[in-house]
Amino acid sequence: MTEETIGKMVMGLAAAVGIIITAASIGLLLAFPIKWTWNATMPYLFSWPAITWGKAWCLNFLTGTLIKSNIIKLKG
Predict the structure, then answer these.
(1) How far apart are CA 6 and CA 70, in angstroms?
(2) Is 67 left (phi over 0), alpha (psi -120 to 50) or beta?
(3) Cα 21–24–29 angle (5° rounding)?
């Protein structure tokens, strides 16, 4: 392997790690509105317990994984 090839591989790995860190950060930030909304409604409506920030992040991850919207564009 040449130094140029190794350099490209390192840059690609760094870009992949950066994308993963950015996606995780956005997911963690989106956990706060879920936590606030849950804690403002669910304990009062259904007597369910309040959730922590970590549980809100897990809930955000699960709903994002299980519920996906598929938008189909028709040609024509």
Answers:
(1) 38
(2) beta
(3) 125
Given a contact cutoff of 8 angstroms between Cβ atoms, the answer to whether 28 and 61 are in contact is no
Counting every residue written for the chain, the total comes to 76
How open is the CA angle 70-38-32, to the nearest 5 degrees?
Answer: 75
pLDDT per position as a tens digit, 53-73: 999 989 888 888 888 766 667
The Cα–Cα gap between 22 and 15 comes to 10
pTM: 0.63
Looking only at Cα atoms, what is the longest distance across the chain?
64
